[in-house]
Structures are given as structure tokens and as C-alpha cells.
Amino acid sequence: MPTFAFDSDDLGRTEAFLNQAYAKMRIGGDTRSSRTQILRDAAGTVSVDRLDLNYNMSYDVTPLGRLCLCTVQSGTIRNRVAGDAEDVYGPGDTVVLAPPDRPYEGEVQRSRYVITMLDPGLLADVTGAEEPVRLLDHRPVSADAGRRLARTIEHVRGDLLADPQATELPLMLSAASQLLAATVLSTFPNSALTSAAGGPRDDRPVSVRRAISFMEDNTANPISTADVAAAARVSVRSLQYAFRAHLGTTPMGHLRRVRLAAAHADLRAADPATTTVTGVATRWGFLHAGRFAAAYKAAYGHPPSGTLRD
């Protein structure tokens, strides 16, 4: 994979170049001002591209066959991987822009950013996994993890890929590739670490797991969808889509399930001589007695009064 520099203000030429350097894609932008600058440093199966666009460029890309990471330095990138909700990235974000096997689309809005691509097989090589390793979320597990990955990418680019002599040393190249892959695995939740922990594998995105944990910790408190999204570190729209895709409900729908389970536990433990169904329902935020009774019966097969009597 060659190291190169590209500089053009012609959208047609830029599209042809991007098709050759990345994957088949269609782009569009403001033809009055459309300068694209790209600097690639690459060796082996790893490449790091620094891009600078002084215009808004829309894109629609077929699967890359490689893991694609993005670090935003300025501007904004709106991105949507097929099957997921759109997300918005800004300065300081380091994310998975696209998995190897899915198309993606979006818009680069006057941005400087870094695209890092690597063979997804490196992830399995590092862990010794016999099956391909999948990343379970496109955002890092923490802000510190994202910054650590960005520093690792810059180290690999500046100290190895940009040095022609270093790229001719196979052992150094292999070590740098493994360092990058290991840092990716520590940055994003993934199938290898989940299965290595033992027990059943939880393939739900980390954002969903953060949201559920927040709900369980705040079951008795008044919380909104926006509160849950903030705790999960995603937008409200992304959270709603993730819950629909992985749990078949909305965030507030799941919260009602959690509170219904809490009410069920209270009713089972309560003394019917001193406790009422209405009191338990009100405690857990169910202010309409009829709706509470209907939801309870649908979940547990009998009315709440039956649990209280038993």
C-alpha cells in the first residue's frame, strides 16, 4: 500500500481518487470551493490518512473490508452505518467510522480528521481468538480510552509509518501493528473480551448496557430519556434506535419494565394487611391504577392483587 499525497479542488478527480484509495463511493459537495488534501502513511496492513476538507462533502461508501477508525481534529462529521442510527462526531472524538462488512454514508462538514484503517484479522491475532473479533460499539468505553487510542495512532504514524527505514523492518512493523490492534481492543467493547470474561456473551452495545445500569441505579428517581442518553454517552436518537434494535422497545418502555419488576418484588414481600396495590404502584411511578394492573397482568399472568394476597 503506497504512501502518497493528494491535493485537488476538482470533485470528479477527488471522487475517482477516493474510489481507488478506499472503496467504491459517491461523493457530493460545494463545487465553488472543494479543495481536498490527503496525506497517507502506510505499511503492511495499516494505513493512517490525514485529511483536510474546506467544504461540506457528502459520501456513500460500500464496505471497505477493513476496520476504519476516525479521529476528528476540527469540524463535524455526521455518519451512519447501515442498520444503525446516525451519529455526530466533533473535535476530540475517536470512533469506529465503519466496520469491515457494512456500507456507510454521511457528510464531512469542513473538517480535518484522521482515518486509520487496519486488517480486522489483527484483532483476532492479538487475542488468539479462533473466530473473528467484532467491536460491539462505535464509541470508546471512556473519553480517556479514546484519547489513548488517538495517541497510539499518532505514535504509529509518526514514529513508524512516516519513516521509510522503519517500515522495512518486519519485526518493528509487526510489533506496531499489534500495539495498535491491542489498543483498539482496550478502547471499544468487543466480542473477544466479553467471551473471555466467562459466562454468557452480552452482545448488546455498551451504550445499551450503560443505559440499563443507569436505569437500575435510578429506578426510584424521576429520570428522562435525555438523562439516560447522557449516562450512556450517546444522543437521544442513537439511544432510541439501539433500544429498538436490541431490546424491541424504547428507553422509557424498558424503564417501565424495570419499575414493574420492582413493584412485583415489593408486592411479593409486602404484608397485605398494611400494604395496598395502589401504594406500591404509586411508589414506582404508576399513577394510573388500571394501566398498572393491565401491564402487570400482561407481564406476570395475574393481577397485582393476586401477588399481594399470595
TrEMBL record:
Q: Does the keyword Transcription apply?
A: yes
Keyword Lipoprotein in the entry? The reply is: no
Q: Which residues form the signal peptide?
A: none
Molecular functions (GO terms): DNA-binding transcription factor activity; sequence-specific DNA binding
The residue ranges of the HTH araC/xylS-type domain are 209-310
SMART domains, sorted: HTH_ARAC
Per the database entry, which stretches of residues form a coiled coil?
none
Could you tell me the keywords of this UniProt record?
DNA-binding, Transcription, Transcription regulation
The protein's name is: Helix-turn-helix domain-containing protein
